[in-house]
Amino acid sequence: MRKIRKGDNVVVIAGRDKGKRGDVTRTVGEDKLVVAGVNQVKRHTKPNPMRNQPGGIVAKELPIHLSNVAIWNPVTQKPDRIGFRTLQDGRKVRFFKSNGEVLGG
Asked: CA geometry: angle at 80 spanning 8 and 74, to 5°?
């Protein structure tokens, strides 16, 4: 079970985009993830008529390391750490370390 998953709202805590918030759009491998609106780069692409792809400058998001983001706690309005807890019915859930609140989903 991962501490940060697809769909989680995270805040960047280190690097060029420090302070930006966004949702995780996908995970890449074991320790990287793509966050919407974060770590954007401009890529110069050639036109490809076979794929019906126009040329030009395209902005896209690159993966960011897991250690450079923290999950956003909507209750405290601050970045937070994640822990794991097993409920009495046997489910393993994630919870915020600061206030013990269980994450939904």
From this structure: 60
